Amino acid sequence: MARGCLCCLKYMMFTFNLIFWLCGCGLLGVGIWLSVSQGSFATFSPSFPSLSAANMVITIGAIVMVTGFFGCLGAIKENKCLLLSFFIVLLIILLAELILLILFFVYSDKVSDNAKQDLKDGLALYNSENNLGLRNAWNIIQAEWKCCGVIAYTDWHDALKEKVVPDRCCQEHYQNCGRNSTNMFWNRGCFEKVEEWLDENKHLLVTIGMVTLVVQLLGMAFSMTLFHHIHRTGKKYDA
């Protein structure tokens, strides 16, 4: 009976980790495609130029793929080294998530202020030739979210050193509308819109976080269960 349960656990762990590995491969592929074909869509932050959507997807995909590989192969081969590696990787990820979460809540005001200032600094690069990605990013976010600047449309006046805004700030969009000071611009900043979206979807985000936490804890528990069984018996059990 116990051997049957462990056998079932072995194939359950293999199946779930195979799915995670395939998801990681998919994310890695999407990230590479974004990096190659959509390279002009970059980051809002001048302080972290590598923190683009493509690089984030590539990093997450690689971590998921490697973790899934350890769990998948460790389960099906009943390999103690791979199972232990899988457990350690999940533990490191879990601890990193907890540390980042604690730091974020402790220094939330400072993080918010630094983010606002960094985004404002990035506005000054809007018209530079080698920052097409930043320009595209701001155009898209302002058009989709109906916002202008970081705090308000006047952020663009300080950044561009003249009383103009990007055309995507205009409520009635047409070419060079941002140079007409009599036009109506979106009066809410994009930072406020993002905070509002996060507040409206906080229950969904908490649910996703809890599901992720449960999956990680179950993965760690399953891997240790198999690890201790193999270590105790000193041999593989028959499948």
TrEMBL record:
PROSITE patterns: PROKAR_LIPOPROTEIN (PS51257), TM4_1 (PS00421). InterPro entries: Tetraspanin/Peripherin, Tetraspanin_animals, Tetraspanin_CS, Tetraspanin_EC2_sf. CDD domains: NET-5_like_LEL. One of its GO terms (cellular component) is plasma membrane. Keywords: Disulfide bond, Glycoprotein, Membrane, Transmembrane, Transmembrane helix. Disulfide bonds join C147-C190, C148-C170. It is a multi-pass membrane protein. It is found in: Membrane. The chain crosses the membrane at residues 12-36, 56-76, 83-107, 204-227. PANTHER family: TETRASPANIN, TETRASPANIN-9. This is Tetraspanin.
